[in-house]
């Protein structure tokens, strides 16, 4: 075992690849498959009752969200094992790099960029039309594989199934979060989100209600008093 | 070395009026402040707040000079809050600043209030390039510096955390003296029972409307039934709301690959919020930077200091242009004094 490899739960040979906000992500092997182990750990800053509730909820939603997304025709990693004792999920390791890194590397043609952005919009629309809200649509949570440019969505811990009357609000907020994530991570490349939204608008069956609410969510931010 | 430049800063965008004197070496020579306090159950209105500021600002300027042991001749420039904030109080403060600028014949520098909080926090704590959690009555933002701007990574999608705390305090009928948030913090220390409340995080954004409406109906019912005390409610409310804030801050830290965190704004002086944030920062091998109520809460020095930084870049404006604006986003101004 090399120095950086460690045992996580019952899984040997785990190599830390990312210390996220909620957990650690390791590269490992699972029955010879290249796998990713994502473990959520206790957050000591929050009340134990709240901590338990959130950890459990998110572990559950991460798995459910991935399965639901698949049913809607969106590529997600295959879940191999869920362990509620150690709050970890083992899933297939997706080949490729995050859309964030891909954009930063900048080694793409205009046409390829257009294809990726429109695929993002189309697939988010498919999720939304199936009542699935991702909850954290950042460019780090979408993996792109070269040269095919096929996309895989990951990190469904904040995802949820929206019910009828909350649909427009939840989807509007999801788009708003995505817009800001694009703006912040790629401040030097304006207009990326607009291209994705364009594709979204063509694909979705609920454009009017979602777009109205999305515009309203944006306005709320603009109009809010900023005293203090 | 030459004599340091000296700036007098004016802040009156909300219910505090502050005048501060800072030198270009970062020394805070004086920073007096007065707060407009309203009766329990009520908030502050623009007109009354402006009136309060008008009544106390001139003596406050005199007090500030006296405390700093300076005369008007020593002042090299005046900085004022251009926005964001409440119109009438902002303008009342700016009018006095403009008058003094003309009498004293010194240049004027406009300052964004949010940038004031951030730069003051960096000055007082020595934090270099932290993720900033800016939490106050009207703002809830997670901010990171990049390419000459303070960029907003996460924020509230509805009401601000301070506003949420104030309204919750109003529901419970807590005093506004010295601030509703302070009284919630004190009462929370006596709470023992954790009551689950709505928790709402969306990526790096938060929403507080759910927990506020829960507090307004369900929590009040629990209180009436006697199954929870006011202290329990304050405790549970704080634990939930602050956990949301720490979570989005941590997400931004992971996202930006930043280790340190700085808390600014009025809610930032809450000791429980600081303690929770410190646990998170420690776990990530980073550092928490926070300040006490002297600098967290609106004050004049937090305007004087960025005023000096901008003055150093030659950013002065003529009197006619020294206007105010109620909306002025944190990511609007160009931060030309930072090169990193
Ligand atoms: N199945 C996978 N295949 C390949 N890489 C992955 C996979 N899952 C995660 N990663 C990599 O690990 C990173 C972090 O994973 P993920 O987004 O699931 O966790 P996180 O960001 O820590 O969660 P959170 O956003 O809630 O903090 C991803 O951005 C990606 O680079
Ligand atoms: Fe403020
Ligand atoms: Mg992620």
TrEMBL record, chain A:
Group of enzyme by EC: transferase
EC number annotated for this UniProt entry: 2.7.11.1
Pfam family, one: Kdo
Keyword set, alphabetical order: ATP-binding, Kinase, Nucleotide-binding, Serine/threonine-protein kinase, Transferase, tRNA processing
Catalysed reactions, as listed in the record: L-threonyl-[protein] + ATP = O-phospho-L-threonyl-[protein] + ADP + H(+); L-seryl-[protein] + ATP = O-phospho-L-seryl-[protein] + ADP + H(+)
Single GO term (MF): protein serine/threonine kinase activity
Residues passing through the membrane, by range: none
Taxonomic superkingdom: Eukaryota
Domain Protein kinase as annotated: residue spans: 11-228
GO cellular component: cytosol; EKC/KEOPS complex; nucleus
Name of the protein in its database record: non-specific serine/threonine protein kinase
Organism: Chloropicon roscoffensis
Automatic annotation (TrEMBL), chain B:
Entry note: cofactor: Binds 1 divalent metal cation per subunit.
Gcp-like domain: residues covered: 31-305
Cofactor dependency: a divalent metal cation
GO molecular function, one term: metal ion binding
A family per Pfam: TsaD
Gene3D superfamilies documented for this protein: 3.30.420.40
Keyword terms: Acyltransferase, Cytoplasm, Metal-binding, Nucleus, Transferase, tRNA processing
Catalytic activities: L-threonylcarbamoyladenylate + adenosine(37) in tRNA = N(6)-L-threonylcarbamoyladenosine(37) in tRNA + AMP + H(+)
GO cellular component entries: cytoplasm; EKC/KEOPS complex; nucleus
Family statement drawn from the similarity comment of this UniProt entry: Belongs to the KAE1 / TsaD family.
Protein name as it appears in the record: Glycoprotease 2
Naturally occurring in which organism (per UniProt): Chloropicon roscoffensis
